[in-house]
Amino acid sequence: GEFVEISRLESVYGAGSPFIHQIYIQGDTGGLAAAVVPETTTMTAHVSQSSRDDAGVQSLMVEELSRIARERGLLPHERPQAVMIVREAFAIDNGLLTESGKLARHRLKATYGDLLNQLILQLPRSSSMVATTTTEAAVHELMQPFLNSAWQTRTLPPDITLGPQGLGLDSMGLLEVLLACEAHFGVSLAA
To answer: 113: Cβ–Cβ under 8 A, 6 or more apart, which residues?
Structure first.
């Protein structure tokens, strides 16, 4: 797997949404999972009463994490595949924050680790909160204007990055994009 700097991701996601009060991210070879404490004041002001149950809040958090990942250009392996809503804030009193206000990782892992791992294990292997693979339909929708322009002029813009990071894809996702392009345009893109 890829190296993931968890504390950086917690900062990015935590600062990126008015709906996230606190976030703890845990990862292993199966991917990332997040325990999220919602910001109740903001939630109350912006979310209808019927959407404040755990399923509604979880749906909002998934949308928020997806939005932040897109806006910050995070790679697929930096995006939580599962989200768990936590109603009790991480605090010094409950041992989930250190005296200096930092996440007490060992306590958070002891408290939520098994639940987060179970969420990851329950996901189908090809599933994730944010898609990591691309279908021909997605290629058509997202890349068609660029591909048509490149095909017509037989040139690529000088600032385009076609590597996995430039497209926000892992290597398998990039392979799927290339195969879909080959199928769509009827040309070989193999190097």
So the answer is: 26
Taking each helix axis from N to C end, the angle separating 6-15 and 54-72, rounded to the nearest 10 degrees, works out to: 110
Exposed / middle / buried, residue 188 (Cβ in 10 Å: 0-12, 13-18, 19+)? exposed
Classified as helix, coil or strand, 50 is: helix
**What is the rounded distance in angstroms from the CA atom of residue 64 to the CA atom of residue 142?**
21
Name the DSSP letter for residue 96. Answer: S
What is the torsional sign of CA 161, 162, 167, 169?
Answer: negative
Strand pairing partners for 187? none
Q: What is the pTM of this model?
A: 0.63
Q: What are phi and psi of 131, to 5 degrees?
A: -55, 135
**Listed residue (30, 126, 149, 130) closest to 73, CA to CA:** 130
Find the DSSP H helices in the chain: 6-15, 40-46, 54-72, 105-122, 136-153, 164-167, 171-185
Q: Which amino acid is at 3?
A: F
Mind listing the pLDDT tens digit for each residue in 112-166? 999 999 998 887 654 444 333 333 444 444 554 554 444 444 444 444 444 444 4
